């Protein structure tokens, strides 16, 4: 009987829960894992590529990582078709802000805009929540590099390192032990990449190192000497190098 | 069978109750506690931070306390995503009022605006109530410092000291015994802060003093010598000092 | 099975009843009692304050009595959040009338406007009736002081003395015996106040005289020598005096 | 199972019936009775006042009889709040017609306008029928005095004498035997008033003559020497005189 | 289980039927019978008056026959309130056509307009079909006198003689045997009237000849010497003459 | 249980079917058969007249065949009232195209327009599919004579010869054996007419030759010497001649 | 019980699935197979023609392959009527882009536009998803020849070779083994055609070689010497030649 509260997006259950939103979150918990890590000199986002086939065309645009504007990108977990709608909104918002104020949109403002858009779909009849969670990576003058996570309810929060998608609990607990939160020990990009790979190795159990480079999408956002943001998705070779380094480390750790 | 009245926001049950609104209130009763106390020289709001993790980014904007305009702030209990929508409305309203009349909006008018907005969502089909309760703290020329509380139904009321969120009944009864309502004995900011911490200590059972500073967000609103409102969220150090003072007092009370 | 007619505001039951409206009325029968009495020189409205706490802020605006325009006020029983919406409508209507015709709106016209607004919500899908009843007190040139009562269905009627809210039947029967309807014996404001207190004493059983002054809100509307309406909510002291006088009378009646 | 056709206003039952309309009619069959009688020199409408209390304010406007324009009035049986909406529409229509064509609106045109308005609410989803029946009394140049009856479906018909509301069948059968339909014997206003009282006496069983004057609202519409319509609601004294005359007649009939 | 397809106007049953339309047709099969007959020099429409009472006002406009424009009329079977809406639409359409093209609207175009209007109500949610069938009688330059029949689905067809309403099958089969379809034997108005009365006699079983004149509404549409259409509803005397003639014929037939 | 997918036009069943569309098609399978055959010098469409009665007026416009514009016609199987709406749309579209581009609309473009219109009604809530199938016959410069068939889903396809409505399977299989698809043997109009009659004879089992001419509507579309399309519905005499020829042929075939 | 989540397009099931979208995909899995293969010098798309009849008119436009603009085409699996709507949108979008920017629309942008359009129908009440999947083939300056696949959810992905429709799994696994993904071995158009035929042979089991040419629609997109895209659907003769070549190869393979 209690199930009847599930069927409509606009009603609370007697316990004060919004089942539709929880089910949408469920959809994301089955999606490919995404890891985001704030480094001392940039941001790393790493994500699991679920569908891999030799017949897939070499990706023109990434399937998991989308640049939103010059200074912000996002990783997607969940329904790609839903994500496209929100990404279009984010790009439009960023572009309009830049045009109107002649300066890049602050990252949190961009994130909140997307999240308010999501919230709308959780409160009205005849709509379903967006079945997608994001990691937002961005840089602005005031707060430097920032990493946000949002879910289908429209909630968002800022993190130094976090995981969304399948097995995110396992990933998070690894991060808790491995990520040094003290200001002085913050990892650099290279260390962050290795940490991200470790997390993915844990959440994507049963993948051999060989397959891993193909199944992982590693992204870094840094700033070049002129202060511009550099968005980079590691190619196979670069990715393999990171993955091998992680393996080597694990092996030597096993040795010792 | 009686449960069928629950499923739609727009209908009364035979007992004249609006179940959807009650369920939304239920959602809030599980949310982090917020305490508001009117002091002789300002207002104190203290709230429980539920999600604490070393991986969380240092908050750029607080998660529980939001400034609405130069002379008003609010504390949030419930769904953050819902709260964002209402906070945006409140800010817009305050800004428009200031622009139109060239003076700050009276606090109660601002509160009523937000509450009417909430009421709308309790009377129409295809909508659900906002799952969020607020403490509003503000100052205006006519009534000085004011503290309001509102719930998902759109009801609001002015208080000298109140509690919303989890265990608010326990918190309220503590306030009743500890808060001196006689005009002459009204607490100053410092006493109010300590009282607020005592209330949170009671509602957040099982937290050690060490963890407390991290789990409590303490906010004060005072006026400086030029008469401007000063919004201040205590940092870790300041918060610890208050919490330690409370502990010390309790210890000495235990001694005697 | 018969219950299914209840679930929608827009349908009649086979007996020709509108259940949603009846349930909304039920909501009001649980609300704090309001008494209205037409006096020879004004109108008295007295209402029960349900929520009383030392922690409540001294009311800036009354919780039960709302001035609608210079010559009309109302008392509210039921959902305050719903009432606010209707009160805003009434104020707007009164103001617009005054602006358009340069004279105060006739009381019944104001009452009918609010009631038609209520009726709208009883006849359309996707809406629920307003869960609020009113006592309207007003004065106009043509009919002098007038007292109206309205319910969630949009019905209204003019009364010399009436009661809404909890135990209104008991209150009404007391009024029937105590209120002198003959033109010559109509009570003056002071007598009406005492009668109103007597009614509340009956409907709010179990309150001691000491608590009563705090739990009762007594309001009078009179005209001053220049013919302007004077709205007055009795303060604690004034209220206590009336309540004491009622008690004294009862005691002396017991004596005799 | 058959009951499911009842729940929506917009569907026919397999027998081709519209249950919602029938239920609305049921609502009217429980309402206070109204009698309308065409006299040789005017129209009489008499109605039962259900709610009588010494505490009711002396009616400023009648509760049962409403003037629509200079040459038309109506009696109401059913939900007063619903009736107000339709009466407003009728007044607006009459006023606009007079303004546009500079002559009074023909009575049937006015009646049909109200009835089409009612019909709209019987054919669309999200609406319920108006729970109100009318007697319309009016005069126009072409057809003289006219009496119409309408029901919630939007049907209307012209009558020489008819009854709506509670016990209307009993009232109608009395009219059939007592009302002389032959052109030469048509009753004058005074005879029609007495006949109307007789009908109400029958439908309102158990009321003593003393109470009757208070419980009956007697209305006459006649034309003065300048040809203007005169709307008159009999006061207590006038009403009592009619009621006494009826009683006397009955007594003398009992004698003989 | 199959019944669930009935409850919505917008769905087909698995057998490809539209139940709501069929139920609306059912409503008409219980309504008063209407007969239409094409004569050599005009059209006859005869209909059963269901509600007859000495208290009914002498009809100002007929209850069953409505003139749509100078050259078209219709007979109504079903819900009068629904019919009024469609008749207004037809009159408006005819008037606009005449205004726009300065010539009378062709009859079939007028009929199709009304029928498309009806069809709209059979295909959309939140609407019910019109519960009314029509006989349309009209004359235009191109096709002369024409007789159409339409039902709630929006279907229409042209006939030389037809019956709608209660017992229409019995009426139709009588028409089949009695109406001479050969061009040379087509009945004139007088013969058509007698045939129409015969049909009504059959469908309205159990009415005595005396009552018949009151219960039948006989209408003829002919053209005068200037070519204008003449709409005529037979008065009691004229009707009785026709009915007597039918009776006489039947008697003499019985004799022979 | 599976039946619940039937009740709404906008949902797929678990097997990926749209039941409402299938039920609408069912409605058509019970409708009168229509045959369309592409001839070397034109198009033949033949259809069954279901309702035949001597009392029917001689059809001013055909009941089964509708001319859409100078160069296109259609045959209708299913709900005539639904068909009228679509035919109006088709005529409007053809007329607007001709006005805008000053040349006749290509046939397939006209057909697609109607079919997209139909599709709209299969994908949205609160609508039901059109319960009608069409045969479209047309001629344009580019493709010459063309024959299309469409169903309630909005699907359409071009054919050399096809059948819709009752027993269309039987009709199609006859066509398959009798219609010579080789370019050189394509039938001329006369042969196509005879073939169409043969198909109808098969699908309308149990009709005698005498009745057939009345029950069949035979239509030909050809071009005259000036290249204009000639739309012709065979009269009784012409139809009988074709039917007799078919019978004669069958008899001689039986002989041999 | 779990089935109730199926009935509305706008709700997630507790497992986070959108059943309506899955059912729409089911519809496509029963549709005719389409194969798309990227060749070194163009793209091949091959599809199964389900309905084949000698009576079908020679297709003026293909039933499975639609040109969208000068440089893009698509193959359709699923409901043709739904596909038409989306194809119209795609053509409009391509045309508008070309007009606005004076250059052909990039292929992925065109694909995403169609897919966002599809997504809209999966998130709103009162709509059903489009029951159609596409293969898009296109060429643009930046990425050369591209092949995309999209499904009813609005998801799309780029492929070197893929299969949609019935038995797509079987087809895909054949492609995996036969399609050489190494850059140097990419098939040319002729090899791709043969591979496509092989895949169709597998998915359309039970068709003889003779029937195959009629049942397969083979399409190639290449560029001519001036760089323009050439869209070509192989005629029967050309198709047979390819099919025979495949057979010959299979035979010789069987030999060896």
From TrEMBL, chains A, B, C, D, E, F, G:
Its main location: cytoplasm. It holds the Pfam family Proteasome. Transmembrane segments: none annotated. It comes from Fragilariopsis cylindrus CCMP1102. PROSITE patterns: PROTEASOME_ALPHA_1, PROTEASOME_ALPHA_2, PROTEASOME_BETA_1. GO terms for molecular function: hydrolase activity. It comes from the Eukaryota. It is found in: Cytoplasm; Nucleus. This is Proteasome subunit alpha type. InterPro entries: Ntn_hydrolases_N (IPR029055), Proteasome_alpha (IPR050115), Proteasome_alpha-type (IPR023332), Proteasome_asu_N (IPR000426), Proteasome_bsu_CS (IPR016050), Proteasome_sua/b (IPR001353).
């Amino acid at each position: 009987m209690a199930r009847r509260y599930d069927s409509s997006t606009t009603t609370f259950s007697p316990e004060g829960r919004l089942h539709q939103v929880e089910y949408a979150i469920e959809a994301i918990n089955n999606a490919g894992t995404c890891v985001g890590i704030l480094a001392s000199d940039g941001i790393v986002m790493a994500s699991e590529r679920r569908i891999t086939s030799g017949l897939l065309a070499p990706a023109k645009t990434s399937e998991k990582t989308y640049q939103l504007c010059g200074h912000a990108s996002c990783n997607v977990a969940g329904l790609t078709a839903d994500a496209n709608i929100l990404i279009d909104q984010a790009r439009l918002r960023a572009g309009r802000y830049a045009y109107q104020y002649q300066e890049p949109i602050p990252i949190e403002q961009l994130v909140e805009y997307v999240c308010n858009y999501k919230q709308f779909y959780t409160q009205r009849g005849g709509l379903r929540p967006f079945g997608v969670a994001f990691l937002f990576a961005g840089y602005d003058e005031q707060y430097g590099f920032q990493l946000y996570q949002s879910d289908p309810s429209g909630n968002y929060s800022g993190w130094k390192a976090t995981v969304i998608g399948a097995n995110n609990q396992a990933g998070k607990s690894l991060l808790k032990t491995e990520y040094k939160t003290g200001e002085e020990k913050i990892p650099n990009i290279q260390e962050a990449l290795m940490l991200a790979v470790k997390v993915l190795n844990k959440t994507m159990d049963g993948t051999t190192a060989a397959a891993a480079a193909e199944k992982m999408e590693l992204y870094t956002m840094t700033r070049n000497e002129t202060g511009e943001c550099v968005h980079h998705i590691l190619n196979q070779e670069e990715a393999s190098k990171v993955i091998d380094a992680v393996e080597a480390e694990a092996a030597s750790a096993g040795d010792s």
